[in-house]
Amino acid sequence: MYKKIHLDAPNIGELEKLYLNRAIDSGYVSSAGPWVSGLEEKCAAYLHTAKAVATNSGTSALHIALHELGIGKGDEVIVPALTFIATVNPVVYAGATPVFADVDIRTWNMDPRAVEDAVTDKTRAVIPVHLYGNPCDMDEINRIARKYGLHVIEDAAESLGARYRGVFTGTLGDLGCFSLNGNKTITAGGGGIVTGNDVQRLNHIKFLINQARGEQGYHTEIGFNYRMTNLQAAVGLAQFERLEEFLAKKRAFNKAYRDALGHINGIRFQEEYKGAESSYWFTCIIVEDASVRRELQEGLKDRGIPTRRLFPPVSELPPYRGCRFIDRGNSRYIYERGICLPCSTLNNPEDIEYVCRALSEFYYEGSFVYAPVK
Ligand SMILES: Cc1ncc(COP(=O)(O)O)c(C=O)c1O
């Protein structure tokens, strides 16, 4: 078999081991300890935001953001239909109702016109998701939010390092939420980050995620155990120091895929809004002829190339069927045709070239004609 190609496996090395060992040696293995604040400071400095708070997941980051903004029962929150389900579940944890807005056919991101059509007098917030690292049309989303008095919580789980008009995603709304799950551009083994410029809010979030524990263990509110551990933060900080290296690799992978496949009739790439610079967490393609998608994925698998379908529209999943949906048919269209290509930073340029050759063969020959390399 050809050398192993990785879809989204994490890239963990000597620096992570070094920092993790230091954290273990310090005796601080749980949520106390210097690595958590170190990661928070590094993150805030990198993003040019006033403060960052580390959490135990991107999902808990989104939940605590909604909670902090006072969103709850009777409120509606607008979410894109095409996203990972973890964008939407926290809306329900908070007691609010998700309303789905369809995505734009070119960028696969929340369509601002659908967002505006989704607004009612119960709408309190909107959660733009920078899908696969690709920034949303934040000017339009913020304009709509201002017009109707809505909070903007960015789901930047997939977009660390992406920018919109030169400003990092996750710092363009009221609060931004990142994920440090194992498949993301950088990982802490698991974890999340909440960012923002309102220091008072961020301080309150820091308090809430630690069981709302006050002086002498006295509790004035119902808090959460959403703390990141010192061990996770040590790994996360090592990964942060390698972020530029990973972003450069993912950018190069995206360019290689586009250069090799961009001119093929029948393949389309996710497009970027004007002023957007994706972090290219994932490079995904649309296979225009939906009937060949499965054959293509299976042929690639036979050749040692792992791929994955895009997220199924959350509006179609059992817990969310029947929710209000401003549907233009785009989320389903993209889902039926979309494939995520190998993008782990464990791959090297030759691996991506190999993937491109296999895809080219399929398209130029009309199917896979050569036997898989053993
Ligand atoms: C768009 C999106 N939102 C939220 C999450 C949740 O992050 P986590 O897995 O860290 O809870 C993820 C990733 O898993 C995601 O891709």
Short description, anyone?
The chain has 374 residues and is an alpha/beta fold.
Features:
8-stranded mixed beta sheet; 12 helices; binds pyridoxal-5'-phosphate; 374 residues; Aspartate Aminotransferase, domain 1; 4-stranded antiparallel beta sheet; 2 domains; alpha/beta
CATH topology of the largest domain: Aspartate Aminotransferase, domain 2
Report the radius of gyration as a whole number of Å. 21 Å
Distance between the termini: 4 Å
Strand content: 5-15%
Structure description:
It is built from 12 helices and 15 strands. With 374 residues, the chain is α/β, with parallel strands linked by helices. The strands form 3 sheets. It has an 8-stranded mixed β-sheet with strand order 1-9-8-5-4-2-3-14, sandwiched between helices. Strands 10-12-15-13 form a 4-stranded antiparallel β-sheet. The chain is globular. The termini are close together. The structure holds pyridoxal-5'-phosphate. The site of pyridoxal-5'-phosphate (PLP) has 14 residues, from helix 3.
How is the secondary structure organized here?
Layout lengths: L13 H13 L7 H14 L3 E5 L2 H11 L7 E5 L8 H5 L3 E5 L10 H7 L4 E4 L11 H11 L2 E5 L7 E2 L2 E2 L6 E5 L12 E5 L2 H11 L20 H11 L2 H19 L5 E3 L6 E2 L6 E4 L5 H10 L5 E2 L15 E2 L3 H8 E3 L8 H17 L9
Parallel strand pairs: 2-3, 2-4, 3-14, 4-5, 5-8
Antiparallel strand pairs: 1-9, 6-7, 6-11, 8-9, 10-12, 12-15, 13-15
The structure holds pyridoxal-5'-phosphate.
